[in-house]
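Hello everyone,

My group is preparing for a crystallization screen and wants a predicted model to guide construct design. The compound we'll soak is S-adenosylmethionine. Before spending weeks at the bench, it would help to have a computed complex in hand. I've included the protein sequence and the ligand's SMILES below. Output in structure-token form would be ideal because that's what our pipeline reads.
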Amino acid sequence: MDAILTGRRIIMKLSLLLILLTALPSAVHAQDAVKRDDHQMHRLHNDPKAYLDALEDPKRDAYQKPHGVIHALNLKSGEVIADIGAGSGYFTFHLARHVGDKGKVYAVDVSPEMILHVNRRIRDQKANNVVAVLSDPDDPLLPDRSVNRFFFSDSWHHIENQSKYLSLMKRMLKPGGEIVMIDFHKKELPVGPPMQMKIAREDLIKQLDSNGYRLAKEHSFLPYQYFLVFVPR
Ligand SMILES: C[S@@+](CC[C@H](N)C(=O)[O-])C[C@H]1O[C@@H](n2cnc3c(N)ncnc32)[C@H](O)[C@@H]1O
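Reply:
Good plan to model first. Here are the tokens for the complex, ready for your pipeline.
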């Protein structure tokens, strides 16, 4: 009986590994090499260790270009950034170094496992300007007029009730604040989420426009993603 159960566990682990290799940003396979359904995606997100490893895979840097992104943001000491869907903190800790001791980075995520991981990193790195926030799926739970920039990397397509989120962010932004959105182009790519989860650049611009934001800036050095900056109108 034990041998059968162990065998099943090994098969389940091998299946999950196969899905991860095809589905996560670090994967090198074509994204449609394996057709993923919602059930598979759900299982993927249910293996936090593998998800964290994939988000932190050094191979990801080649296309995600974290240093280029941080440079383009031209961060100022003392800024408050909300890293929404912060995940492992891949961008959070870069952002934190650039806003300095007087600044703050809220690492916001709905996943308790991601928040635990970020809290460990805060303690280990003595990153006292990072605050991890376990949020609601449709509310970042931040104070009004508290944020200079909302930062979304590969996370806007996960947000539930996006119109509500856009209206909440307007309240939470400080005067002169911005929303930064980095996400995958809606076309066949060697990395990224399945096609049905992607939001086309043009659709995102229309969505923000109809919710009271205008496109203020665009950076075009990322090979697979758009990098847009919006401000309230
Ligand atoms: C693809 S990961 C991106 C992580 C990180 N931004 C990065 O670039 O490495 C998406 C993250 O969004 C989180 N997430 C999903 N739905 C969310 C929501 N409604 N609000 C906040 N975070 C969410 C997930 O838990 C996951 O950590």
